[in-house]
Amino acid sequence: MFSPEVENEITDLNIAYLLLAQKLLREDRAAAMLQLGIDRGQAQFIGRLAVPEILTLSSARGLLCGFRMGELVRTVLQTGHDEPLQRAHLFIVLAAGQAPAAA
């Protein structure tokens, strides 16, 4: 499907994502769950992963994380507000996990 180089980069990204997720969950579980877009069960699963399990899971074909933007970014950026306000609004909406109503 992908070249070996890309497969290795996906594995590296997955490892980094899971390690960051664990760190975020240790520091502030509720904020991390919101930021990562995961539920309590997923948070517990990720938080309990040992290094060998992270390596095995990270080697799966495909990304473990994904973008949560789509229409959301387009809607926020087309509101006509100044750039700092647009960025703040985008981060608030992304953190809340909700897309604003299309105008």
TrEMBL record:
Keyword Hydrolase: no
Keywords of this entry: Activator, Bacterial flagellum biogenesis, Cell projection, Cilium, Cytoplasm, Disulfide bond, DNA-binding, Flagellum, Transcription, Transcription regulation
SUPFAM superfamilies from the UniProt entry: Flagellar transcriptional activator FlhD
Molecular function GO labels: DNA binding
GO aspect biological process, one term: bacterial-type flagellum assembly
Transmembrane segment boundaries: none
InterPro entries: Flagellar_FlhD (IPR023559), FlhD_sf (IPR036194)
Domain of life, source organism: Bacteria
This protein's name: Flagellar transcriptional regulator FlhD
Record organism: Ramlibacter lithotrophicus
